[in-house]
Amino acid sequence: MPRGSKSRRMEASQAIFVPMHSSRGNAQLLALLTAAIAACGTDITTTSNLPDAATADAASSADAGTDATPEAAAPSDAGGDACPPGTQPDGDGGCLSLTVRRPFLIGSSLRLADAASRTDWVAVAPPCDLSCATTRAWLAEAWLRDGLEEHASVAAFARFTMMLLAVGAPPELVVASQRASLDEVRHAKDCFALAARYGGGSRGPAPLSIDGAIERTPSLVDLVELTAEEGCVGETLGAALAAEQADRATDPHAREVLASLARDEARHAELAWRVVAWAIARGGEPVREAAARAIHRAITATRANPVREYPGVDMSSWRAHGRLACDEARAASEAAIVEVVLPSLSALGVGPAVAPLASRAEA
Questions:
Q1: What is the bridge-based pairing of β-strands 203-205 and 115-117?
Q2: CA triplet 272, 243, 158: central angle to 5 degrees?
Q3: How far apart are CA 27 and CA 56, in angstroms?
């Protein structure tokens, strides 16, 4: 992308984004995203022989959500109907993902590898003197789940890169996607290390199934719908939630990991909005409408997540080591939707879609 004034504004906005518990952090994230939208909506040019967005099929929908904590019982005591940390029952016998990072979606399901005993995916973490065994066990399982989701995000970005190539995207976007994939490798290793730190053992990912990841050559609409759900909503909220987690954490190592993750997720969210803006500039109104549908769907799914209680977990330790209670995650997500996602959606020129989404916050 030409490195003009808009590009410099993006870099400046990105440089000042730091985790914090206030609307100021969301304002900084919004500045980053709207600068990206403005720049990529006007500056990037590419070949004209792109797929016809008007005749493309809509991509699959996502169950986006917020970071959450498990119910109060040690992981080993969970029954067959219990969902793992980071998920909640979907009412149909399955578990709804509450991921705060870029999900690897196959259809409407979050695809993850199983956990396996291994050390090569585990970074180095200092020891922890937390005494509550139940809290340690849940922390280990929650960070293990995060590690598996970060690992799956590597696949999500690999697919994203291929989709960018399939629609003739400019090299700047492809390079940014490749770099984001490498960020996710580091995130996964850090999360697996935190799981081990809290007594979860040295575990990492088993082989990840990629069946169904790409079933046909994608169109601009396919790219935009998946990017809007995984990136514009998923990673925008992920950046805000990770910043909230980092702000509440008092454990130095957990705080350091989360602060780094929040900065990276903000950059990944910026990339998602850049791609959507570029695609709208290339494909016009059908692509803009696809983005609005996908973002509306993802926000609606996020807001539908129930808030749960979990007696038995030491909540002060839970927060100190980088986790949020469900109500705290819900509040942080809603603030990010209203203060970041909806204004960014307006910057894309999707005005009619904003009013019904904003009405939830006003209720």
A1: antiparallel
A2: 35
A3: 35
Burial of 20 (0-12, 13-18, 19+ CB in 10 A): middle
Beta bridge partners of 95: 89
pTM over cut 0.85: no
β partners of residue 117: 203
Q: What are 215's two structure tokens?
A: 């079933």
For residue 53, give the DSSP letter: G
**Nearest 5°: phi and psi at 109?**
-110, 145
Largest CA distance in the chain: 62
Residue 318 has pLDDT above 70, yes or no: yes
- Computed over every residue of the chain, the mean pLDDT equals 77
Task: Give the Cα separation of 177 and 181 in Å (integer).
Answer: 6
Measured CA to CA, the distance from residue 218 to residue 166 in angstroms comes to 7
Instruction: Return d(Cα 101, Cα 233) in angstroms, integer.
Output: 10
Instruction: Supply 226's token pair.
Output: 């998946």
Other Cβ atoms within 10 Å of 224 Cβ, number: 36
Return the CATH number at 324: 1.10.620
Helix (H) or strand (E) holding 106: strand 105-106
What's the angle, vertex CA 156, arms to CA 155 and CA 158, rounded to 5? 60
Would you call 239 helix, strand, or coil by DSSP? helix
Alpha helices in the chain (DSSP H): 5-16, 23-42, 133-166, 171-195, 220-227, 236-248, 252-283, 285-303, 315-320, 326-336, 342-347, 351-362
Residue 199 belongs to domain spanning:
5-362
Number of structural domains the chain divides into: 1
Of residues 47 and 309, the one with the higher pLDDT is 309
